[in-house]
Specification:
156 residues, mainly alpha, 9 helices
Length: 156
Amino acid sequence: MKPRMNAFSAAPEAMKAMLAFENAVKKAGLEPRLCELIKIRASQINGCAFCLHMHSRDARAAEESEERLYLLSAWRESPLYSDRERAALAWTETLTLVAETHAPDDVYEYVRRHFSEEEMVDLTLLIGVINVWNRLAVGFRSVHPVAATPTRAVAS
């Protein structure tokens, strides 16, 4: 895959504002592991390899387990996620796919049971931030770092 452009070079002031927005959301106080799960789930939905690469590494650095990372796309079927995490993941999917879901009342009420109003705003902003990053990375074909010697798939 060949990158289309570097957004930081093309629009440095806009990207500086984007970084400031992300930093403000980071300071909001949501749990770091929860934030990484949200970023990974939105990136899975959006097909953003660059962000999946980055946030799976960040999640591991935040001591997230490999098992939970592997099962994240099937979180509804796994007992490994807390009710609070499930609410956040449901809200992530709902807002990432908002054109399809229209943020239904039942999901909103589910999130309300596990997050304060301030946390709901912080959560919603975090979901917005990762969706913008996904759109930048997918739209401009950002390429994630690749190991010097890629692993080859073995034919069976």
